Amino acid sequence: MARGRPAVTRARVLNYWRNHGPCPIMQVVRATGADRSYVKRILLQERTMEIHGKSLIIDDDVIRRFNEKIDKSPGQGPGGDCWIWIGARDSYNYARGIMVNGRMVRGTHLSLAIAGRERPSLDLIALHSCDNRPCVNPDHLRWGTDIDNAEDHRQRGRRGPHWLPDEVVHEIHRSNERNLDIARRLGMTPAAICNIRKGRAHKRIYDQYYPVT
Ligand SMILES: [Zn+2]
């Protein structure tokens, strides 16, 4: 911070960034009245994050490319507010990520870092509270250990291996979409959709649609 610069300006810039960011630098300049070079300098500190032990700068271009890979339209995932990664996914259906300063950064990690929740240590992984693997909504993510992850799975296991809210199962039966399309929208695999539609999972609801006569 420049000497003599009122701390209130800095607070205003950072507050705006927390409430409206990630957004272009000029938007912050217009909203706060602070000058451009000052905003740039503050946000550069704020948006430099440690990933894989290296400081990477999250600039407007990174944020633009991140946003391009996300579908934020409502109604996705169990709570209806998942952000679905529409870029490449790994074989487990998790968001792969984008290149930042020559390094591949996972979609979930980048999302948390942009939200101001940098990875606290390298042994932590991003865990989903929504259980929706391609989701990168930072509100559904938290840093945790492998042990936390196993505990999450154990808790969900109690609700059965094919746990899904009933209304989602109904939606799958009522939909005319292809397995692939509905699977993408709900963050599931086409095979899981097929199992529900054929009555191999959630038989009780299946029977309401295809009663045995
Ligand atoms: Zn989610």
Would you kindly provide a brief summary of this structure?
By secondary structure, the protein is an alpha+beta fold. The chain has helices spanning 7-20, 25-32, 36-46, 60-68, 107-114, 146-157, 166-174, 179-186, 190-197, 203-209, and strands at 48-51, 54-57, 70-71, 84-85, 98-100, 103-105, 125-128, 141-144.
Describe this structure in words.
The chain is an alpha+beta fold and 213 residues long. It folds into three domains: 1-46; 62-157, Homing Intron 3 (I-Ppo) Encoded Endonuclease, Chain A (Alpha-Beta Complex); 166-209, no CATH class. 44% of the residues lie in helices and 12% in strands. It contains ten helices and eight strands. It has helices spanning 7-20, 25-32, 36-46, 60-68, 107-114, 146-157, 166-174, 179-186, 190-197, 203-209, and strands spanning 48-51, 54-57, 70-71, 84-85, 98-100, 103-105, 125-128, 141-144. The strands form four sheets. A two-stranded antiparallel ribbon has the order 1-2. A two-stranded antiparallel sheet has the order 3-4. A hairpin with a 2-residue loop joins strand 1 and strand 2. Helix 1 (7-20) packs across helix 3, helix 2 packs across helix 3 and helix 8 (179-186) crosses helix 9.
